[in-house]
TrEMBL record:
Similarity comment text for this entry: Belongs to the GcvP family.
SUPFAM superfamilies referenced in this protein's UniProt entry, alphabetically: PLP-dependent transferases
InterPro entries in the cross-refs: GcvP, GDC-P_C, GDC-P_N, GDC_P, PyrdxlP-dep_Trfase, PyrdxlP-dep_Trfase_major, PyrdxlP-dep_Trfase_small
Domain Glycine dehydrogenase C-terminal, chain residue ranges per copy: 779-899
Catalytic activity of the protein: N(6)-[(R)-lipoyl]-L-lysyl-[glycine-cleavage complex H protein] + glycine + H(+) = N(6)-[(R)-S(8)-aminomethyldihydrolipoyl]-L-lysyl-[glycine-cleavage complex H protein] + CO2
Enzyme Commission identifier(s): 1.4.4.2
Cofactor: pyridoxal 5'-phosphate
Organism per entry: Hymenobacter antarcticus
Record-listed N6-(pyridoxal phosphate)lysine modification sites: K708
CDD domains, sorted: GDC-P
Keywords on record: Oxidoreductase, Pyridoxal phosphate
Quaternary organization: The glycine cleavage system is composed of four proteins: P, T, L and H.
Main enzyme class: oxidoreductase
Protein name: Glycine dehydrogenase (decarboxylating)
């Protein structure tokens, strides 16, 4: 017998599911002889890459993890007392193991299909309730990207709501976090808002110019101010007030709501989420009830299902940018769901008593440190503080000596540009840490620090009475029940069991790319060398991250064909915005300040026009032709009409309709001839990698959804990462950062942290490392194969709306379900019926109303594709029964879907179909049944009776309001 050595640990074979035999079978069904023929018939030859990707050779999982351990080991994890919105904390292991490291949570999709997402939705209701209670506000959303972007969203929202005509000034306290001020400047300038930064104790807000003001609580240097009089004076002058607050401090401090604030924003990071060199973390946004119609981001609300049972769903203008497009007040299209769940579950586990004790311990240790430093002769300038001391030294030389001594002890403080030093304590600080800090100061001062007692003595809270919180918070039973680990474990498992994820079946969402998030890719995320770094730690302590960033930027440049990449944007929508700002900066540097027109196809994602408006551009819509492509005649007419002011074209490639437009090079050339630049939306980049590229089609900038193409999981609706690649001419205008210089750039930041959500970049780093150039290219080819296989199997049952010149789709396709309306069947009915077959629906009614947009990805096997196709064909037969009159138009399997266990186990069954038909429509479902926990949800009821916290429904039975309907679409 002949033996041959061959590597077994080949990652690509695990990621790219269809093997050789399956590929051959699928190609026969499609009607082509080879994969090469299929690709040739799908992608225009003019844009094909002329050479393979030049990337490092693929590593095995074992080899990658060993190598990455060495890279991560270059990071030095010091104890950081820098503060500025980032603090050391401890994620309870039971939460880390069972949520953060659990694919049942991190591979789930955004909860648009609420009936199979009740667990996540309940967890988000907990988070919203936690934020509402601690801030004292009336309503809160399900998170924003970070504190800085939450502050920017508050500014934009209040600017849109002011009744003061011509008011465009926004006051920001100089004591707001510096990275937030940086981001506010970035966001204010394009839309004509004038930022006025100064001392809140001296600013005069009585004029007509100010519409809003923002303060920090506690302030950036740690001072705790009583803002009650400031807020009252501002509101007397019709000036809205935003407070950025620390959630842990709010367990002891009077809440912003009680002080009268209109909006409260901040970051929930210190509720158990590692610093991660900047993210991801869940920013929070809470406000008054009067702003519920315009609150940015996602809002989770309570409604009822068809049986009258309580059920959760996303409420109000959840997809505002897809409904209002260029008239939207925000381009926010996503949230930090996984991080919100973690912070909310931290609160559920610890409850109000433990949270308050964390805060008490932190404050008492800060008091002890202040007393010890006072004995050493160090001046502490904060009259009132929570966890942060503001220390004034005698000279710059002493400050430098302190820095050297601290770093020698593996400790980081905050060093101001003058002679001050900031020391922020945290949940993990112990008495021994305080002793270590005192020893460092004593050495520099040439003195002896007093020996601390073994335990802290009791102390009084020395704040003024007006600052001490007396109101209750977190009184709901959910925060007072699950404090034993096994009780929390059972609660988390109960929630997990209510949600369908990739652990159950494929999620074939068009434009959302729910592919394999391999375990080996996820492992480094929870390493302390990755999670333990403060984002403002000295960069020489982050050599591992420096290598990760450099390698990833190089690889993404190779994939895109571009010259430079910024990793800062922490969502696809932020990437869009950053890309448009780069184009804006380019034009302005050339003196073309008047170039502000963005041409956007009518089929574009709603975030495109919303982002363009935020970047100060005028949106001009370009028509689509009947075949779904950009109407070249209209494009030419619009470009000609706006030639003098043309800034850019925003285009998605392959198109939003799932087709490689063959005229794309001509389109890009046309825009360049008029002096504009081409922005390519990277939502469909996974249909380009290795076969074509943004540079090859003629684009100048594109954002990349690392949470789509490059395997960062959706996490139930976030986190995401949206870096941008640009040609050399645009590179100088990539985002910078006010606190940590980013490659010498001077432009403003678009995210709070210098490198955005740094701690999840290792996922994409791992994916590229283990796939290599050949593996990435095959992933694109197999995504196209899988999509065309589904098309071949379903096109006799459902019309496929758009195809290329050879009848091929790209990596996704649109099934036209509009003609079923004649029989009374809506596309939503198909989506809900799929739940009975154990499947999540494809993307509903985007980009064309009444359609399903399907994307299988390369990670799904032929067997799984066949199960999905069989389900769709079976549902088509059920529709035929209605069309033929054999099933009632209103009382049928689709209209009553999904079917819960409670429904089919009820004593009385009066429906004209059997219970078995309802819940076991195919044999494979019988053995692997996923049970929706609620029947179809009444969305309109939930919007009329808005409940967005854990408050009992009985208190709201009389509330009746007509609200904006939620829409559905791809998640960025």
């Amino acid at each position: 017998m002949s033996l041959k050595f061959s590597p077994v640990d080949v990652f690509e074979a695990r990621h790219n599911a269809p093997g050789a035999d399956a590929q051959a079978a699928m190609l026969r069904v499609i009607g082509v002889d080879s994969l090469e023929q299929l690709i040739a018939e799908t992608i225009p030859p003019a844009i094909r890459l002329k050479k393979p990707l030049d990337l490092p050779a693929a590593l095995s999982e074992r080899a990658f993890l060993a190598k990455f351990k060495q890279i991560a080991g270059q990071n030095q994890v010091f104890k950081s007392y820098i503060g500025l919105g980032y603090h050391d904390t401890t994620m309870p292991p039971v939460i880390q193991r069972n949520i953060l490291e659990n694919p049942g949570w991190y591979t789930a999709y955004t909860p648009y299909q609420a009936e199979i997402a009740q667990g996540r939705l309940e967890a988000l209701i907990n988070y919203q309730t936690m934020v509402i209670d601690l801030t004292g506000m009336e309503i809160a959303n399900a998170s924003l990207l970070d504190e800085g972007t939450a502050a920017a969203e508050a500014m934009h929202m209040l600017h849109s709501q002011t009744k003061k005509k011509g008011a465009h000034q926004y006051f920001v306290s100089e004591q707001v976090l510096p990275q937030t001020i940086d981001l506010l400047r970035t966001r204010a300038t394009p839309v004509g808002i004038e930022l006025v930064v100064g001392d809140h104790r001296q600013i005069d807000l009585s004029g007509d110019g100010f519409f809003g003001a923002m303060v920090q609580y506690p302030a950036a240097d740690g001072e705790v101010f009583d803002y009650k009089d400031f807020i009252a004076e501002a509101q007397k002058n019709n000036v809205f007030v935003v407070m950025a607050a620390d959630l842990l401090a709010l367990t002891l401090l009077t809440s912003p709501g009680e002080l009268g604030a209109d909006v409260c924003v901040g970051n929930s990071q210190r509720f158990g989420v590692p610093m991660g060199y900047g993210g991801p973390h869940a920013g929070f946004f809470a406000t008054k009830d009067q702003f519920k119609r315009v609150i940015p981001g996602r809002l989770i609300g309570q409604s009822i299902d068809a049986a009258g049972n309580k059920a959760y769903r996303m409420a109000l203008q959840t997809r505002e940018q897809h409904i209002r497009r260029e008239k939207a007040t925000s381009n926010i299209c996503t949230a930090q769901v996984l991080l919100s769940v973690l912070a909310g579950m931290f609160t559920v586990y610890h409850g109000p008593q433990r949270l308050k004790q964390f805060a008490t311990n932190t404050h008492l240790l800060a008091q002890t440190l202040a007393a010890g430093l006072q004995k050493l002769g160090v001046e502490q300038t904060n009259a009132h503080y929570f966890d942060t001391l503001n220390l004034r030294l005698e000279s710059a030389e002493m400050q430098q000596a302190l820095k050297q001594e601290a770093e020698a002890a593996r400790i980081n403080f905050r060093f101001f540009e003058d002679v001050r030093v900031g020391v922020s304590l945290n949940q993990n600080t112990e008495l021994s840490d305080v002793a270590d800090i005192l020893d460092i100061f004593a050495k520099v001062l040439g003195k002896e620090a007093d020996q601390l007692a073994a335990e802290l003595a009791e102390a009084e809270l020395s704040w003024p009475t007006s600052l001490i919180r007396t109101s209750e918070y977190l009184t709901h039973p959910v925060f007072n029940t699950h404090h034993a680990e096994h009780e929390l474990l059972r609660y988390m498992k109960q929630l997990e069991n209510k949600d369908l994820s990739l652990a159950h079946s494929m999620i074939a969402l068009g434009s959302c790319t729910m592919k394999l998030n391999a375990t080996a890719e996820m492992i480094p995320v929870t390493w302390p060398e990755i999670g333990g770094l403060h984002p403002f730690a000295p960069i020489e302590q982050a050599k591992g991250y420096e290598q990760i960033f450099a390698d990833l930027q190089t690889w993404l440049c190779e994939v895109t064909g571009f010259d430079a990449v910024s990793l800062q944007p922490n969502s696809g929508a932020q990437g869009e915005y950053a890309g448009l700002l780069a184009i804006r900066g380019y034009h302005e540097a050339r003196g073309d300040h008047h170039r502000n027109v963005a041409l956007i196809p009518s089929s574009a994602h709603g975030t495109n026009p919303a982002s363009a408006v935020m970047a100060g551009m005028q949106v001009v819509v370009v028509k689509s032709s009947e075949d779904g492509n950009i109407d070249l005649a209209d494009l030419k007419a619009q470009a000609d009409k706006h030639a003098a002011n043309l800034s850019c074209l925003m285009v998605t490639y392959p198109s939003t309709h799932g087709v490689y437009e063959e005229t794309i090079i001509d389109i890009c050339n046309m825009i360049h001839e008029y002096g504009g630049r081409v922005y390519m939306d990277g939502a469909n980049m996974n249909a380009q990698v290795g076969l074509t590229s943004p540079a090859a089609i003629g684009a100048d900038v594109c954002h990349l959804n690392l949470h789509k193409t490059f395997c960062i999981p959706h996490g139930g609706g976030g986190p995401g990462v949206g870096p941008i690649g640009v040609v050399a001419a645009l590179a100088p205008y990539l985002p910078g950062h006010a606190v940590v210089p980013v490659e010498g750039r001077v432009n403003g930041a678009v995210s709070a942290a210098p490198w955005g959500s740094a701690s999840i970049l290792p996922i994409s780093y791992a994916y590229i490392s283990m796939m290599g150039g050949d593996g990435l290219t095959r992933a694109t080819e197999l995504a196209i194969l899988n999509a065309n296989y589904i098309k071949a199997r379903l096109e006799a049952h459902y019309p496929v709306l758009y195809t290329g010149s050879h009848g091929r789709c790209a990596h996704e396709m649109i099934l036209d379900c509009r003609h079923f309306k004649k029989a009374g069947i809506e596309v939503e009915d198909i989506a809900k019926r799929l739940m009975d077959y154990n499947f999540h629906a494809p993307t509903v009614s985007f980009p064309v109303a009444g359609t399903l947009m399907i994307e299988p990805t390369e990670s799904e096997s032929k067997a799984e594709l066949d199960r999905f196709c069989d389900a769709m064909i079976s549902i088509r037969k059920e529709i035929s029964e209605v069309e033929a009159g054999r099933a009632d138009a209103k009382d049928n399997l689709l209209k009553h879907a999904p079917h819960t266990a409670a429904t089919v186990l009820a004593h009385e069954w009066t429906r004209p179909y059997t219970r078995e038909q309802a819940v076991f429509p195919m044999e494979y479902v019988r053995a692997n049944k996923f049970w929706p926990t609620v029947s179809r949800i009444d969305s309109a009821y939930g919007d009329r009776n808005l409940i967005c916290s854990c408050t009992p429904i009985e208190q709201y039975v009389d509330q009746e309001e007509e609200m904006v309907q939620a829409d559905k679409g791809p998640s960025y």
